[in-house]
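User: structure tokens for this one?
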Amino acid sequence: MKPDLTTLNHTERAALIQFLSQFVSDGRLSKFNGVVQNRTKHLTIVLEDLYQEHNISAVLRSCDCFGIQDVHIIENKNNFKINQDIALGSSKWLSLHKYKSGTTAALQNLKAKGYKIIATTPHENDCILDDLNVDQKTALVFGTELHGISNEVRQLADGFVRIPMFGFTESFNISVSVALCLHSLIKKTHALPNWNINADEQESIKLNWLATSIDSSDLLIKEFLQKKTT
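Assistant:
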């Protein structure tokens, strides 16, 4: 059974980070410190019922590259499967939130956390990607490869956005769409105050990254926590 790191307070997390840091190289630790400062939760991605592993994996890779920390995964009919040859390990650096209770519950959860729900589709009253305002926390929703977003997304969305296209094909591949959206919106996000993750959340993320990077980290963490309580 894995140790529950979410129950640790700031002092305990800091001490555990210091302890685990001795088991990774200085270069990797420096990389963690640099990357985490550029992570954001202001902009997040929601994937509704994707079923093609190569698309799922490419999306995760793009999210990591653009500094998106949270990816919300709605599993209505399809299970979320990752192809590591495409994802290149990106999933272990992200916070993946899975929902099996349906699209409505997932989007209402995000709304309760202050997110504006923006659905990506070329078929609604929408705005062009370059015109999308992300001053408020924004969750971009991408629907299944075949049918796009569901009726539940359409009903709960606070707005719709589309990527301009000038050819005969109706839409981009979903992984391309995510990459194009993030490339455009991350610039706007970085221009906002407090766009990055606060110090407390950065600490939690670094701890998870360390635990992911170290062989037998669960045993090391359990041993450390037991010593702290005795």
